[in-house]
Every structure is written in C-alpha cells, then in structure tokens.
C-alpha cells in the first residue's frame, strides 16, 4: 500500500507528462554580445558597465581594470561561440569577469567525494512505486508545479551547494506534504551541521541527519544566508519543519531515479564542474566533457525526451537539474543533462552514487 503522498505526487507527475517542458521559463536578465558591443573598447566598456550593475554591485572598484580585461576576453569568446553556430545561444553570466581558477575555487568544488555507508544504504533504499519500471511518466518537471520549488538560490563564493540542495529537497516535500511554502535556512546547515565543512563543502545526507538530530530546521528568515562560514547561533522562534529519515536511490539505475523524481525532487552528485563549457552553460542538453576532480551536488527536478525532427530518431533523453548559482547561469538557473550511460554512472557521474531524498516531513 502506497502512502497517500506518493499517490498524489505521482498523479501530479503523470499530469505533467502532457504539459510543455519550458512553458513557464522565460528569458530574463540575460546579457548577450553583439557585433556592435565588440566593435570598440568604448562599446565594450558600456557592455561591461551594464553587466557590472547586474553582477558586481559589491565588487572592489580598484580591481575593475583587471576585471575588465577578463570580461573583454570572455565577451569575445562568447560572441565567437554564438557566431560559429553553437547549439545554444550563450550569454554573459555571473562568471564573465572571473579567471578559471577563481571560478574553480569559489564555485566548482563543494561536495568532496566520500564513500557512502553501505549498511545505512541497505536499510534505507527507495522502494519503487507500482508504476515502476514500465509505466513511469514520459516526463516530469517540478518547475511547472507551482509551489514545489522555492526558487533558484545563489551560493556566492561559498561551497554550500550541498546545503542548498538539502534545503531545496526538504522545501519540496514540506510543500507536497504540508502545503507550506517556506525557504529553509541554508546558513544554519553551513554553520551548525559540523559533520559537514561549511563553505568548504559537504553532503546533503549529513545535512538531513543534522535536521533529524535537531528535530528540525529554522527558516531562512529566522537564520538568513550570509554566504560565509559564521558561528552557529540559535535564532529565536521554533524550527519550522523536520524530517523523519532520508532515503537512498540505487546508483547506476536510471529507472529507479526516474521513479523517485516522479514523486519529489532528489539530490544528485555531479562531477567535473571545472570546465569552461560548464561555466558558460546557457541552455540545451549538456553532455560534458566532465573529466576533472571538482564535485558538486544539486537537485534533480525532472526528466524528459527532446523530440527530433526525424520521425525515426527517438530523440535525446535528459534530466532537469536545479543549480545553485542564481538565475543568470544556464536556463534561468536550471540545466538539462543528457540521460543515459547508466552503466558508466551517467553523464558527469550523475547516477554514479546513490541519490538521496528526505522522507517523513513533519
Ligand atoms: C580548473 O581547470 C583549470 C583549467 O583546466 C586548471 O588549470 C585548474 O587547476 C583547475 N582548478 C581546480 C581547482 O581544479
Ligand atoms: C524563497 O527564496 C526565493 C529565492 O531567494 C524567493 O524568490 C522566494 O520569494 C522565497 N519564498 C518565500 C516563500 O519566502
Ligand atoms: C560574513 O558575511 C557577513 C555579511 O556579509 C559579514 O558581516 C561578515 O563579516 C562575514 N564574515 C566573515 C568571517 O567573512
Ligand atoms: C580523465 O583524464 C585522465 C588524464 O587525461 C585519464 O587518465 C582518465 O582516464 C580520464 N577519466 C575519465 C573518467 O575519463
């Protein structure tokens, strides 16, 4: 017998199969590069000022000339990519005036590799629903169900992707189970869940364990995000929600992952974020390359298949993930990743470790 929540979520997910993928996702805050922009240094400076006002309000003004040189090179590279007919149109996102090393150190590494505990996994494995494996929805996209996702967060120069992924997953089940929209405190996890390493990285499952041990977590209003590791404090007011346990989804098994995400968003790993293709990702289906040691964790929020013009072509299967770098990165903060390659652990290792989600929301 399935719990009522599972039934409801599955029905919602099935209903989604019919809706259009990105209907609710609109173009916003995107800065593109035209031939006029790159025509002269003066026009490039005008473009930089526009970009700066959006992304660097807190920057050090003495640093600006050096930053402009990096931006200049990046804008020209992005212009060339678009001109050469890239599959997607690239724009200038939040990384446009950073060096590769600054990007890699500040953003690309926030979930160190750790072997997941075997015994714990055995006891807490996802139990597939009655739709598994042959009647799974054709597509699932939690972005299109109002209230389930609280919005794309921005980690800043703090390796807190694991905490944002964990709060995102808890926010989703809090809404699905209790019908409440609340942003949970990422900063509380960064500061207080000592099994993790704050802004130097961590693991969503240890964040879930912290919430279980503390019988709950505060809201982001009670304990706001500052984006650096600060001293753990206990805000006034009671914790806004809790969870009873967390559940692992078998690795190297796409259908189980599809089954799990048809019920609620799930935290997945991602390997190889230190690359210009990932840094510049602006849309379309990401296929890598991803061969490096930098690691990330984020929320899997759906899957689907991009149809092809050719009737004999089955199309390209993809996952939908929510990143933690704000809305100027990717498709308004989200990314499509090619689905498949399950025996190799998926593109960039997305299914190479057990995915994890919180359960029994209170
Ligand atoms: C990121 O990639 C660049 C270019 O490949 C490399 O030089 C740098 O060492 C990498 N940084 C990290 C932290 O992996
Ligand atoms: C939660 O945070 C997002 C992104 O920061 C914001 O857009 C949204 O309004 C917040 N939602 C609530 C219910 O506070
Ligand atoms: C952390 O960020 C807050 C808010 O921006 C700032 O007041 C504080 O000085 C920062 N702490 C550290 C250790 O950088
Ligand atoms: C990554 O690159 C190294 C060196 O080029 C290579 O030895 C290794 O096999 C590659 N790993 C994967 C997973 O492609």
Average pLDDT rating: 89
Gap between N and C termini, in Å? 21 Å
Low-pLDDT runs of 5+ residues are 1-26
Helix/sheet category: alpha+beta
**In the CATH classification, which architecture of the largest domain applies?**
Alpha-Beta Complex
Number of strands: 8
Query: Which molecules are bound besides the chains?
Result: 2-acetamido-2-deoxy-beta-D-glucopyranose
Largest sheet: 6 strands, mixed
Radius of gyration: 21 Å
CATH topology of the largest domain: Cathepsin B, Chain A
Keywords: Disulfide bond, Signal
Domain Cathepsin propeptide inhibitor: 48-103
Family: Belongs to the peptidase C1 family.
Protein name: Cysteine protease
Keywords:
single chain, 362 residues, alpha+beta, Cathepsin B, Chain A, 2 domains, six-stranded mixed sheet, 10 helices, 30% helix, globular, disordered N terminus, binds 2-acetamido-2-deoxy-beta-D-glucopyranose
Kindly describe this structure.
The chain has helices at residues 4-16, 41-55, 64-83, 100-107, 118-123, 161-178, 186-192, 204-213, 254-261, 276-279, and strands at residues 140-141, 245-249, 266-271, 285-286, 295-306, 316-322, 334-338, 355-359. It has 362 residues and is of the alpha+beta class. The chain has two domains: 4-25 and 108-359, Alpha-Beta Complex (Cathepsin B, Chain A), CATH 3.90.70; 31-90, no CATH class. Strands 1, 3, 4, 5, 6 and 7 form a six-stranded mixed beta sheet that branches. Helix 6 (161-178) packs across helix 7. It starts with a helix and ends with a strand.
């Amino acid at each position: 017998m399935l719990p009522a929540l599972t039934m409801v979520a599955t029905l919602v997910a099935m209903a989604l199969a019919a809706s259009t993928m990105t209907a609710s996702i609109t173009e916003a805050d995107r800065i593109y590069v035209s031939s006029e922009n790159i025509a002269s240094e003066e026009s490039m400076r005008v473009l930089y000022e526009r970009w700066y006002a959006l992304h660097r309000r807190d920057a050090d003004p003495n640093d600006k000339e050096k930053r402009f040189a990096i931006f200049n090179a990046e804008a020209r590279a992005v212009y060339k990519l678009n001109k050469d007919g890239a599959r997607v149109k690239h724009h200038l996102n939040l990384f446009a005036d950073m060096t590769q090393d600054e990007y890699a150190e500040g953003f690309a590494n926030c979930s160190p590799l750790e072997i997941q505990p075997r015994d714990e996994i055995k006891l807490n494995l996802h139990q597939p629903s009655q739709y598994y494996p042959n009647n799974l929805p054709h597509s699932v996209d939690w972005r299109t169900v109002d209230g389930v996702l609280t919005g794309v967060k921005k980690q800043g120069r703090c390796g807190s992707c694991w905490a944002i992924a964990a709060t995102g997953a808890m926010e989703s089940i809090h809404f699905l189970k209790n019908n409440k929209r609340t942003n949970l405190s990422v900063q509380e996890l960064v500061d207080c869940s000592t099994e993790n390493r704050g802004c130097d990285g961590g693991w969503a499952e240890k964040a879930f364990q912290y919430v279980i041990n503390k019988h709950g977590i505060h809201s982001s209003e009670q304990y706001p995000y500052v984006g650096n590791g600060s001293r753990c404090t206990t805000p006034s007011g009671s914790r806004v929600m809790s969870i009873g346990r967390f559940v692992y989804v078998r690795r190297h098994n796409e259908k189980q992952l599809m089954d799990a995400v048809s019920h609620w968003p799930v935290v997945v790993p991602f390997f190889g974020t230190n690359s210009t293709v990932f840094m510049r990702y602006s849309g379309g289906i990401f296929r890598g390359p991803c061969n490096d040691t930098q690691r990330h964790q984020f929320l899997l929020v759906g899957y689907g298949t991009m149809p092809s013009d050719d009737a004999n072509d089955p199309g390209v299967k993809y996952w939908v993930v929510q990143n933690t770098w704000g809305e100027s990165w990717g498709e308004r903060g989200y990314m499509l990743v090619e689905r498949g390659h399950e025996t190799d652990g998926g593109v960039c290792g997305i299914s190479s470790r057990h995915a994890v989600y919180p359960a029994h929301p209170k």
